[in-house]
Amino acid sequence: MTDVTDVTDVTDTWRIWRKQTEVTEVTECFIDVDRLEKVFTVRKKTGFLKRERREVRAVDSITFSVARGEMVGYIGPNGAGKSTTIKMLTGILTPSGGRLRVAGIDPSRERTRLARRIGVVFGQRTTLWWDLPLIDSYRLMHRMYRIPDARYRENLDRCVELLEMEALLDVPVRQLSLGQRMRGDIAAALLHDPEVLYLDEPTIGLDVISKAKVREFLRELNAERGTTVLLTTHDLQDIEQLCSRVMVIDHGRLMYDGPLDGLHEAGESERTLVVDLERELPPIEAPPARVVRVEGPRQWLAFPASQSAAPLVARIAAEYPLVDLSVREPDIEAVIARMLHSLGDSPGAPRPPQERATA
Amino acid sequence: MGSVRLYAAVAVGGFRRYATYRAATAAGVFTNTVFGLILVYTYLALWDERPHLGGYDQAQAVTYVWLGQALLAALAIQGGGFESELMERIRTGEIAIDLYRPADLQLWWLANDLGRTLFQLLGRGVIPFVFGALVFPSALPRSPLTWLSFLVVVPLGAVVSFGIRYLVALSAFWLLDGKGMLQLLMITGVFCSGMTLPLNVFPGALGEVVRALPWSALLQLPADVLMGETDPLGAYVFAAAWAVVLLAAGRLLQSAATRRVVVQGG
Amino acid sequence: MDGLRAYGLIAGMWIRSSMAYRVSFAMTVVGNLLLSGLDFVAILLMFSRVDSLGGYSLPEVALLYGLSVTSFGLTDLAVNSLGQLGQRVRDGTLDTLLVRPAPVLAQAAADRFALRRVARLTQGALVLGYALLAVDVDWTPAKVLLVPVMLVSGAAIFGAVFVAGAAFQILVQDAAEVQSAFTYGGTTLLQYPPTVFGTELVRGVTFVVPLAFVNWLPATYVLGRPYPLDLPAWVAFTPPLAAAACCAVAGLAWRAGLRSYRSTGS
Fold first, then answer.
1. What distance in Å separates the CA atoms of residue A336 and residue A250, rounded to the nearest whole number?
2. Does C71 fall in a domain?
3. Chains B and C share 3 or more Cβ pairs within 8 Å
4. Cβ-Cβ contacts under 8 Å, C181 against chain B
5. Region of poorest pLDDT, from A78-82, A266-270, C126-130, C167-171
């Protein structure tokens, strides 16, 4: 968590960032999305036998581009249009409007050709073969993607080493834990050397150790291979530890695109410092932090997420009998909610309420 | 009286759950009608060759076909009710939760399945039956009393069907993979209920045997009651007796299975 | 070619998966054999009471049955899972097929490939073998040649029905049963002589959904019997053309279906 001293307005941050990409676009733009739209027609029962057709814009004129080697977090509330965007990027869905290129390919027109160049991991949907040893799924990938033998060997060895899967290869997938399965799925998506990896909730439901392993692996993958990574997540730590850039989508619209710190600024989100004191004491006074909860000797203090915890900790340690403390990161939903709320208050941003589509 | 309300609520739940699948229900009606059409023509040809085969005339044979299509889903003659869900719960161990519920496992699923039966009788059964009655010559009773006795024998058949499927489902406590048992259920259900051919057409000893088995309460008995071919009271006794035997067997198996769960800890 | 290769790879994986439960596999093969045989048992039971059905003798009906079930068995073995594509659409797992570098149709067809379905094919072939030995036909080279032509064209026609049905299920996910009416209903219909059915129905399966080209039209020629509709004799030799037309239509339907796919789930 870095401190950002200059407080900029969201829209400013966004503009700044746009300028930056316009520069990088010239060098190499890998994913290029221009006024992308997806409109679903929903038939709704309005009475006995009467049905009303209405259009739902799951993705509403989104524009962005991602340079080769970037790691981007794509976040937003459920049903905001995240999955719909990813499905268009992978060619699963055909856009209703706008322009879309991934590695120069139009995904929906040349889905099969694009498939060789991308890797996809669906968080809660394994593509591994349930009743067969893990290695069998990899052998299928080897042949289905026609990966050269030497390359396959090399990639598999690497994944096995970095994701610590040596002992798992001969185990039937149904006997793997959730975390082991996710690692298995990520490896399966990388054997054919994809240039971009899409991850849909890669750490959902994983234990702390598995999460750490997955994140470390993704970081290395990005650093060494320069693989572009686009991930959706509900876990703010995924973003903090992996992504230099975040895109926030809500109601099908891109609401924010820039560094994570800016998002905190925009949302004025708060982190929580949990303090264990030696004994029960009256609420700690350390503005701008404020006590939000007291339970015996334990107190919860909220403070702006953009601020470093260090001075606060130092101050409390000096003035109070401290036993233990920990910092809790803000919940991503809360951050987004606050950000959207603050955007809604600012002029030029009000939007009529819109029906949410399943994304 | 509280438990009656509980099981009534469970039955309503079973009804509602199937009522949500409108497209599937419509698709099922279509399929039942198509299969009914195919069977009717083959039966007409058969009865053309041998009038009064098995004591039915042509119109009765036709009515038998459409009744079969109407009851196929409702009485889960070839399976397709609660049993695969219960088997899955047993396989995953979720059954342990069910056993701690303050409700009887067998009664719970019986209520649930009767709710489903009622929905599928109305949602899937009525249309093919009416279609058949309108398009082909049929042998429907005029007396309301006959209809009434028909409406008594069908629920009895539903309980018999439940009893059979409950035994099949509980087998999952001992067998790892349920596919084989479900298949056995389907084979016996289709053949022994008279779905392929009325049981009174089956020749000799084979006919005697299948008519004495519980499956005959699913289609043959309701058909004979509806068309006045059998004494309703005798039909009630036959179906009720099998229902009691099967439910009791289900109880026995259930307590054996429960002991197993308790010993294994789930 | 890419599609066939992917099909082979995926089917191979499913075969290996099913071998994880060998006992269950053996049981289900036997079960499928019995289940598939039931409708022939029904025909045998009918012929235990009559000597002919719709003017056809038992060996003649067996010929129709054998041709229908063998060609359907081929298709059912190869692409059965297309009948349940709606389920993959409903739970969103069709997505995982769409991001692979192989034709989706091949992947979907190979999905849940089950070797146990060889049972239906085997049973159909056995009956066909019996019929070919028992039936009273003056075999000419043309008639002999028609037998394999019928099997291959028939399998292709059924295959087209499966593909078109799968495309429809992308739009209406709960329509699996409508598809069954045409696939399982179709093979059942064709087991009986065309003379058994009403002319409207025969016209429908000749001109609208051309199932009659699977066996009725060519087989009536082989048996030297008149077809219920007044068609020229050379029509008996057109099953390959009918099959090609069906496959073309099904291919278009599949493309349209896939294009309209709206992925659900997150």
1. 9
2. yes
3. yes
4. 30-31, 34-35
5. A266-270
Which pair of structure tokens corresponds to residue B185?
A: 């259920």
The pair of structure tokens assigned to A272 is 């929580």
State residue A14's pLDDT score: 43
C162 occurs within a structural domain: yes
A127 vs C96: CB contact, 8 Å cut-off? yes
Residue of C nearest to A81 (CA): C266
The alpha-carbon gap from C141 to the nearest alpha carbon of chain B, in Å, equals: 32
Query: Per the structure, how many domains does chain C have?
Result: 1
Maximum CA extent, chain C:
63
Identify the pLDDT of residue A189: 95
Neighboring chain C residues of B44 at a CB cutoff of 8 Å: 196
Name the residue among A78, A125, A144 with its Cβ closest to that of C100. A144
Count Cβ neighbours within 10 Å for each residue of C158-182 and write b for 16 or more, e otherwise. Answer: bbbbbbbbbbbbbeebbbbbbbbbb
Residue B53 has its nearest CB partner, among C38, C39, C49, at C49
Q: Confirm whether C265 is domain-assigned.
A: no
Cα-based distances in Å from B229 to A42, B57, B152:
52, 11, 16
Partner C contacted by A309 (CB < 8 A): no
Q: Does B38 contact C185 at a Cβ distance shorter than 8 Å? A: yes
Distance (Å, rounded) from C-alpha C218 to C-alpha C198? 19
Q: Is residue C142 part of a domain?
A: yes
Q: What is the token pair recorded at B128?
A: 């093919």
Give me the amino acid identity at B45.
Answer: A
A2: left (phi over 0), alpha (psi -120 to 50) or beta: beta
3-state secondary structure B149-211: HHHHHHHHHHHHHHHHHHHHHHHHHCCCCCHHHHHHHHHHHHHHCCCCCCHHHCCHHHHHHHH
Which range of residues forms the domain containing residue C212?
2-260
Residue closest to A186 by CA, chosen among A213, A147, A209: A213
Of A250, A234, A212, A199, the C-alpha closest to A72 is A199
pLDDT of residue C132: 97
| Residue A328, SS3 per DSSP | strand
Q: Is the dihedral of CA A335, A337, A338, A342 positive or negative?
A: positive
CB B200 within 8 A of CB B56: yes
Which residues in chain A are closer than 8 Å to C106, comparing Cβ atoms? none
pLDDT higher than 70, residue A23: no
- What are the extents of the domains in chain B? 2-259
Q: C-chain residues within 8 Å CB-CB of A145?
A: 101
Give the C-alpha separation, A237 to A253, whole Å: 23
- pLDDT tens readout for residues A179-216: 899 999 999 999 999 999 999 888 888 888 888 989 99
Exposure string over A170-180, b if 16+ CB within 10 A, otherwise e = eebbeebeebb
Best probe of the C interface among B195, B196, B199, by most C CBs < 10 A, is B196
Eight-class DSSP state of A225: I
Is the ipTM higher than 0.90? The answer is yes
Contact yes or no for C196 and B203 at CB 8 A: no
